[in-house]
Amino acid sequence: MTINVQFFGAAGEVTGSCHLVTVGQKKILLDCGLVQGGGKDEARNREPFPFDPGSIDVVVLSHAHIDHSGRLPLLVKAGFRGTIYTHRACRDLCRIMLKDSAFLNEKDVQWENRKRARKGLKMVEAMYTVEDARLAMKQFKGLVYQQKKRILPNVTLQLNDAGHILGSSIVELWMEDEGQQRKLVFSGDLGRSGMPILQDPAVITDADLVIMESTYGDRQHRSWDETQNEISQVLSTATKGKGNILMPAFAVGRTQEILYLFAQYYKQWNLDRWQIFLDSPLAIEATRVFMQHSDLFDEDMLTLWQKNKHQSILPNLNISRTTNQSMALNRIHSGAIIIAGSGMCSGGRIKQHLKHNVWRSDCHVIVSGFMARGTLGRKLVDGAKNIKLWGETVQVAAKIHTIGGLSAHADQTGLKNWYRNFNNCLHLVLVHGEEQAQKCLSEVLKTELNTNVTVAKYGQKIDLIKL
Fold first, then answer.
1. How many other C-beta atoms lie within 10 A of the C-beta of residue 280?
2. Of the candidates 134, 159, 315, 328, which lies 20 to 30 Å from 426 by C-alpha distance?
3. What are phi and psi of 143, to 5 degrees?
4. What local confidence, expressed as pLDDT, does residue 308 receive?
5. Whole-number Å distance between alpha carbons of 220 and 407
6. Are 135 and 94 in contact (CB under 8 A)?
7. What are the structural domains of the chain?
């Protein structure tokens, strides 16, 4: 009899989500994400998988963020031939996100090989190509929430709204081997109750084992009222200083939330004084996908969408699709709010805008999402006085504002309250968190809910039969 789960990513760290479930002779992979961070962290993405990709029968993908989906083209390239099950909206987002990830990979390799050629060094290959991403998409199958699907003879799947980003899922797996039945619940990334745009995370009440994220397990987010006041104050201060505002934002989720908030508080925040630029081709495409899945919106967002679906939700929103349009923003020294990727400042157009603005004392940088260790965004949050951009040292004179209340992840109370809904489930594994966050959340859950908490370690295996 075999029903177990083994952890090969997001174990003791936030990125690279990847968990292998074995049921009898069948193998299910939960997520297959890229490791993000510094150069050494990202180099791990090129290492061989710690399992035979050809032996995996199916993949269940919780959501489209690249730290959960980004190695799927590699998995297919390495021999995986099964089906990738996920929500329909997640499938549609992955179609653009994996293509974008591959394009950036190819571009980075071209840049690297030009340098290598001048030095007479051996050329390197892209981790995966746009064509690899296209081929991987052929194996996706889109599902809807709250409908059971038999994905293997002995495994049934149901996806439930996680409220994190569009199409994000809490995964329920009913498994059986030799008459033994077990249920596994994987939270994916959990959203927050009352978040803009999306529904609240679904409530699940029964499981034999729960795998739960812990990104913000050691802190509480500011309330929405406090967050809105904080953004208003930053905008007011920046208006007086007559500089630009840079907003590094994840193309999927965070960008759409920012646009929603700007539309809701357009008059209160005096946004008519600014020119707002969405400078991210990926975010532009992702926003289009959001609008195609308006059935997933919460009531407030649905009302706003129905009111504005035939026009821009912001009268002063400018869309920068081309490279030339993006470069033109470098000539604007005042009055611009620039929303650009990547969300952790590790690539994309935001780096160019930092180069042209972050050394200015009248510039403001609004950090609205999680910054992994080793990323440029994390250095800014941690108060770096200087940063490196393409080998050039740039002074940080801009004011850095961390708006934690915009996070799309549940905080400690949110995680605790979601887990509290389980009836008599005393077995919990924490993933997707840094050491301090996991230690703090683990202690709270043990003390307050008498929970048997395990903090996942890389390669660790848990036998559900013995629970």
1. 29
2. 159
3. -115, 175
4. 64
5. 11
6. no
7. 3-219+408-466 (3.60.15.10), 224-406 (3.40.50.10890)
* Amino acid (one-letter) located at 70: G
Look at the block and give the residue holding tokens 């996991």.
438
Match 């951009």 to its residue by tokens.
389
What is the rounded average pLDDT for all residues in the chain?
Answer: 93
Give the separation between CA 127 and CA 226, rounded to whole angstroms.
43
Residue 344 CA to residue 367 CA, distance in Å, equals 9
Q: What spatial distance separates the first Cα and last Cα of the chain, rounded to whole Å?
A: 13
- For residue range 358-409, list pLDDT tens digits in order: 999 999 999 988 888 888 999 999 999 999 998 899 999 999 999 878 888 9
Per residue in 159-175, pLDDT (tens digit) is 999 999 999 999 999 99
Q: In what order do the strands lie in the sheet with 461-463?
A: 140-143, 83-87, 58-60, 26-30, 18-23, 3-9, 461-463
> Please, which contacts does 159-162 make with residues 24 or more away whose CB atoms are closer than 8 Å?
159/85, 159/86, 159/87, 160/202, 160/204, 161/198, 161/199, 161/200, 161/201, 161/202, 161/296, 162/62, 162/63, 162/187, 162/188, 162/189, 162/190, 162/191, 162/201, 162/202
Q: How far apart are CA 411 and CA 417, in angstroms?
A: 10
> pLDDT tens digits, residue range 251-281?
888 899 899 899 989 999 999 999 999 999 9
Q: C-alpha distances in angstroms, 385 versus 12, 157, 237, 388?
A: 29, 49, 21, 11
Render pLDDT for 25-59 as a digit per residue (tens, 0 to 9).
999 999 999 998 878 888 899 999 999 999 999 99
As a whole number of angstroms, the distance between CA 251 and CA 368 comes to 12
**pLDDT per residue over 126-155, tens digit each?**
999 999 999 999 999 999 999 999 999 999
Q: Are 195 and 221 in contact (CB under 8 A)?
A: no
393: exposed, middle or buried (C-beta count within 10 Å: 0-12, 13-18, 19+)?
A: exposed
> Can you read off the two tokens belonging to residue 72?
């799927």
Q: What is the pLDDT of residues 286-328, one digit of tens each?
A: 988 998 998 999 888 888 777 666 456 789 999 999 999 999 9
Round to whole Å and give the CA distance between 312 and 318.
Answer: 10
Tokens of 280: 């991210």
Per DSSP, which regions of 236-300 are E strands? 245-248, 275-279
**Helix pair 254-264, 299-308: axis angle to 10 deg:** 70
